[in-house]
What does this fold into?
Amino acid sequence: MSFRQLLLVAFMLIAALLGGTALRSVVILERLMAQSSKEAARALELNGAAQALAARSAGMERAARQSLVLNDSLLRRRFGDESRAAEAALQQMAGAGLRGDEPAVWRAQAQSITALLEGPVQTSLERERLVAAEFRDLDAVNGRIVAQVQALIESRDRALRGQLDAARARLMQQVVAAIALAVMLAVGFGVWLARPFKRLERAIVQLGENQLAEPINIPGPSDVRGVSQQLEWLRLRLTELDADKARFLRHVSHELKTPLAALREGVALLQDGVAGALTPNQAEVAQILHHNAVALQAQIEALLHFNAAAFEARQLRRRKTDLLALLHDQVEAQRLQWRARELQVEVEGSAPPLQVDPEKLGTAIGNLLSNAIRFSPPASTLRLVLAASDAGVTIDFIDQGPGVAGPDADRVFEPFYRGQRQPEGAVRGTGIGLSIVQEYVAAHGGRVRLVSDTQGGHFRIELPHAS
It folds into this structure.
C-alpha cells in the first residue's frame, strides 16, 4: 500500500472508533429519553387516576347521602355510576403499577357503604349518619392511596435518575476510552508512518554530506520505496560524478603541469642566456613570461587544493577538543610570521570543550589567523577572542588592518575572489583561504561571517554546542 492509502486507512480507523462511540451515545440517549417519557406518562396516569378516585369518592358521598335523605332511586343509580367510575380509577392505578392493600380496603369500604344504602325508609336518617362516618373512613383511605401514589412516583423518579447517572458514567468511560484509543492509534500510526521519512531525511543528509558508500534501501509504503530507489539512483550518479571529477582533476593537473614545467624551463634558459644574450626588451618579456608561468602554476595548485578541501570537509573525525588550546597551538605555529611583522597576538576568553575535528577546525583558524597577520600593519595588535553562550561558541579574529571594502563584503568568501584592499608589498593571494574556512566551519554545523560594525578586519566563527 502507498503512504496515501495507509494514511486513509488510519483516518478511517480513528473515524470509525469515534463514530461508533458517538452512535452508541446517541442510542443510549434515545433509550433513556424513551424511558423518561414512559415514566412521565405513567406518573401522569397515576396522578390522574388518584384525582379521579377522589372526585368519584366525593360524587359517591353526595349521591349516597342525598338518596338516603330523599329516598330517590335516580340518586341511587348515580351512586352506582360513581362507584363503577371509582373502581375503574383503581384498576387504572393498578395497571400503572400501584400495589399494596389500600385498593382492597377501599373496595371493602365501598361495599359497606353500598350495604348501608339498602333498608327501610324508617331507618334512612340513621343509615345516612352511618354512611357519613363510612365516607370519612373512605376519605382516609383515599389519602393513603394518594400518598402511596406519590411515593411510587418518587421511587420511580429516583430509579430513573440512578439509571441516568449510571448511563452517563458508563458513557463518559466509553468516550474517554475511545479518545485515549484514538490518540494511541494516531500516535502509533504517526510514528510508524514517520519512520520511513526520517530514514529518507537521513539518506538525503548523507547525500548532502557526500557520504556515498552506504547503499540506500528504505522499507515502507510503495511510494516511499519509490523515493528510496530514486535516492539510490542519485547516490550512484553522485558516486560516478565524484569519480569523473577526480579523474578530470588528475588529468588536468597532469596535462597542464607538464607543458607548464616545460614553459618555465624554457623561460629560465632564456633568462640564463643559454640561447644568447638578451636585449633589455627581451629580458623584460622573459621576466613577464616567468611571472605569469609562476602565477598560473599557483592557480592550478590552488584549484586542486580547494577541491581536496571541499571533499575532506564532508569527512569529519570529531573528538572532544579544548578550543582555547587549539587557538594557542595555531598562534604558536605562526609565531615566525607575526613576530616578523612585530605584531602582538592576544588570545582571550574560554569555552567548554566541543566535539569537533581539530585538524580541519585548526586549518580554518590557521587560515583566518594567517589572513589577519597578512593584513595587519606592523607593530599592531591582533586579538583572538573565545566566548561561550547558550547558542554555542564564538571565535573572533580582530585586527587593525584596512578591513574589507564595502563592495567586497558580499563576495569575500567566494573561491578565488581577492578584494580591493591588499597589503602593500605582499604577494597577491590565491583567494581560496576564506573559502576553505567556510567549507570546514559549515561542515561542523556552524558559520563564519564578516562583522562590519568594527574598525579593521573582524571575522567570527560560530559553532553550535550540539554539532
Q: What stands out?
A: The two ends are 38 Å apart (CA to CA). The longest helix spans residues 124-208.
